[in-house]
Prior knowledge:
The chain is α+β, with helices and mostly antiparallel strands. It is built from 4 helices and 14 strands. The termini are far apart.
Amino acid sequence: MKQLRLFAGLLVLIIAAATAHSVALSSKRAKATKFKVRVENISDPAGQTAADGTRWPFAISPGMFILHRKENPLFTPGRKDRGFGLEAQAEDGNPAELLKSLQEEGQHLVRGGRFTTGLFNTPVGATSPGPILPGGAYEFTVTATPGTRLTVAVMFGQSNDLFYAPDYGIALFDARDEPVGGDVTSQFMLWDAGTEVNQEPGVGADQAPRQKAPNTGAAEGGVVRLVKDGYSYPETGKVMRVTITPEM
């Protein structure tokens, strides 16, 4: 529990209050629809098991979202991190830097120039920011028009630089411009940001809550890719559930 309190405390210190930012995404002609997004930690409360038998709790960090219409604005698989904040999200569960970059330089970072961003950092039922542990959840709402896609990024809590996100973005409307919803967990994959050398999840010395300070692990200089490092990771659908519900 001491480790979990350290992890939560680190996130509270480095994450600002949730704020949404919009840049010309809505259309006067298109009908806007509100969607509720729920991110749940459905992992086993007994924890995960490391190679040496150590049990450790699976945690999901606060995250950020972006509504967009073109390609994935956060990263390109097979290429290095673009250097505008994904590293902080993937290494320390801190979406604030990424959000700030998109707000200040989004017209250059997001192709097409139309986007909405925001962060979510307070678990349902909590009064302060922190990670979600087994049984916990985040909820947030977005408003979008036909043609909009949703990308969400959260950190795999006890890792060096791993994060969950869809590869291209989740379509919020079908071919007839009708809003869609349901369980979209299958569209989320576990990515390695390639910015810090990986250690075994849950026990690595340079992972929260064991690291002495944010951004203290050995630099990797790799590329963003699906995680493949020889360590064992839980199946996404067994530890996390993401659902989207249109609110008519």
